[in-house]
Structure formats: structure tokens, C-alpha cells
Amino acid sequence: MPFTVLLKRLNQGKRHSHELFFHYMHTGQLPKTVHSIMFVDSDVEFAWKRNRRSMDHLYHGLIKNPSIGGACGEIEVMHWYQNPLTMTQYFEYKSNQFLAKTAESWFGMVTCLPGAFCMVRPKALEQVLNVYLAVTTTIWNKNQLDLGEDRTLTTQLLQGGWNTVYVQNAVARTQVPSTLIGLIKQRRRWINSTVVNMVILLRHVHRLKALPLLLALGIELISSFTLPTAMILLLYDLAITAGLHATVSLAIVILWIVIIMTLSLTTRIEQVAYWFHVSSIISATAIVLFIILMIQNYEKFIHKGVRFRRCSELIMAQWLELVVLLSWFGIIIVSSIIHRQWFSVLGVVAPVAWLLLCPTMYIVVPLYAVCNFDDLSWGTRGA
Fold first, then answer.
1. What span, in angstroms and rounded, lies between the C-alpha atoms of 116 and 44?
2. How far apart, in Å, are the Cα atoms of 25 and each of 28, 124, 126, 194, 307?
3. What is the pLDDT of residues 330-381, one digit of tens each?
4. In the prediction, which pLDDT does 369 show?
5. Nearest alpha-carbon partner for 366 in 264, 292, 270
6. How far lies 357's CA from each of 275, 294, 318, in Å?
7. CA of 171: how far to CAs of 44, 47, 73, 118, 317, in Å?
8. Is a pLDDT exceeding 50 seen at residue 282?
């Protein structure tokens, strides 16, 4: 497969790369017969000893149907075993691609073609180029276009009537933040740009055949705000179950949230990294206590031979959390087996790391992102 590599010395973002590509094509430095444009980050590998054909798989996944405007592959986490943070991201990447991207691709509506590893049809990109390269003037636009380039491009392709797909056997691997502060800064950019682009997608993309997916995306958008609330209520309930008075439990949870928001609003995160690390450790400890309490409830149930006759009794006995947790892991385990990657979920400690860091990922990180919606820096890299 003949290809041309466009390598930039200075990282000025994906939009600049796309603009540069069409400049070279219109000036005759690149042929106008190009069938695809592949985007790859500098820290991404897509070819190694046991994986030599990812680019070929991605290309054929793109051109197999003229209605497809963009395709992406699976991105794995490189050196996932470094620490609990990289393990958590490994599990997140796997579960998201096993479930979300596979389901979205079935409807021809993958909502994010990651700029780290994807391929786009030139005709499709050129169709949305003017809107995609628009000058940003407001914080909303900057979160949409400057910080969420890949999601913005995907949304505009879908608005233009193109399909976007996920190619499972096109695999790449990337480096992820290995420190808590690096992860929080990266996710701040991801969360804010995702919320903005999801609102735009749901307002402007209306496909009857994809109605179930659009409803699911609407629920996902709402859960961006309700999930942190649910996690906070879980910690509050845990404090009461551990024997603290309800008023004391509520005061502790509120104080924790106020401290996180105050630090996020008033201080550079590098200067208060200690408090974010302490918060992460305390919340992980709370999850351990939660698991211990669930096990104790289970032992009491077995020991006393209690029989639950009504669903309300099951809920009152605090078994709902266990049912939800096991159901979630069950779905991921089944999907990993279907994808023939059962080891990624069953054979490593990554799911445990993810579980322990849930309060950090679904409370601390979203709170920091909301408090820094006006932060237009790239996060982990210079733009």
C-alpha cells in the first residue's frame, strides 16, 4: 500500500494537520487521488511483531462501504502494569471498546474517532472542513474545537450524513498518564469537550435507525452529572453503615466536596497535588470498607438462612449494590470473551484497581473538570 507521511516538528493540533494536508494537496505536493487520511499520535504504535497489519485492516474497514466517512481501531494501553492508575485506564479502554464502540459501530455512529489512531475519507473531511477549521471565539467553541478536535470532527461527519465505524482487528497501543495529576488534567479536557460535543450531536444528528443509540447517548450525557451524585450518596450511605451519625456523615461528605471544588477553583493543581493524592487514598479505602461490609452482609445472609421474598426486602438488605456490581462485571466479562480477549479482564488486577479508583474517577475528576471549564490548555501535552 503506497502512503505518504506528514511529520510535523511542532505539535499544533490535529486541525492544523488537516489544514496542512489539504494545502499540500491543492498545491500539487500531494496527489488528489488519495483514498484515505490516517491520523496517528507520536506516542502511538500500530505495528509490532505480532500485529503488522493494523493499518491495512483500518484502511479496508474504511473503504469497504462508500457511506463510511471514518474508521477507528482498538487502542490498548502500553505498560498498563506500572501502577493502579495505568491499570484503571487499561480496564477503561478495554471495557469502552468492548461495549460502547462496538455498539455504536453497529449503528454506523461511532461518536469519537480518536485522533491517536483513526482513518478518514478525504472527501468526507473536505465536506466539513470549513466548519471544522472555524475560528473559535467563546469558551464553549474552544472546548468543542480546540480541545475536542477528534470528537468535533466525528460529530461533523455524522451531521454530514457519513457513517463512522470501529474496526476491531486494527490495533494500536499508546502511553497513558501514569500520575494522578497528569490523569486529572487529561480527563478535564476529555470530559469538557465530550459534554459539549455530545450536546451538539444530540441536537443535530437525527437518524431513525439509530434511535436506540441516540437514547442511550442521551442517558450517558445525563449520567455525566448523575453518576458523581450517585457515588457521593454511596459514600454517604457507607459512612452511616459504618456507624457514623447521619448528620456527621453528611458533614464529612460535604466538606470533602467543598475542599475539592475550592482547590480546583483557586489553585493550580500541581501546587495542591498532595490533597488530591490524599483524597484518592481515602476514597479507595472507603471502597475497601464497602466491599467488606457487602461480604459481611452476605455472611449474615448465609449464616442466618434468611430468605428474601420480595424485591423491596432485597433492596433494604443492601444487596442492590452487589447485584449492580456483579451485573456490570458480568457484562464486561461476557463481552471480553466474545472479543476473544478474556485475559484482559479475567487475568489481571486491572478491574480491582478501577473499582478502588471509582470515587476519584467519577467524583474528583468531574468536579475538577467542571470547575475548570474555562481552562483551555491542552493538559498533558503542549498544543
1. 7
2. 5, 15, 11, 31, 72
3. 777 777 777 676 666 655 567 888 889 989 999 999 999 999 999 888 766 5
4. 94
5. 264
6. 15, 18, 22
7. 10, 8, 6, 10, 44
8. yes
Strands 163-174, 117-120: pairing is unpaired
Alpha-carbon gap, residue 58 to 88, rounded angstroms: 27
Count the alpha carbons within 13 Å of 338 in the hemisphere toward its beta carbon. 13
Mean pLDDT of 81-105: 89
Residue 294 has pLDDT above 90, yes or no: no
Q: How many whole angstroms separate alpha carbon 293 and alpha carbon 356?
A: 15
| pLDDT for residue 314 is more than 60 | no
* Residue carrying C-alpha cell 483524597: 279
Q: How far apart are alpha carbons 63 and 336 in whole angstroms? A: 27
- Cα separation, 265 vs 262, in Å, equals 5
> Which amino acid, one-letter code, is at 286?
A
The single-letter code of the amino acid at 64 is K
In this structure, are residues 363 and 228 in contact, taking their beta carbons and an 8 Å threshold? yes
Give the integer Cα–Cα distance in Å for 8 and 313.
Answer: 63
Query: What's the pLDDT at 382?
Result: 43
Q: For residue 246, count CB atoms less than 10 angstroms from its CB and return exposed for 0-12, middle for 13-18, buried for 19 or more.
A: exposed
Cα–Cα nearest to 144, from 179, 187, 190: 190
Whole-number percent of the chain with pLDDT over 90: 43
Tell me the pTM. 0.86
252 grid coordinates: 464529612
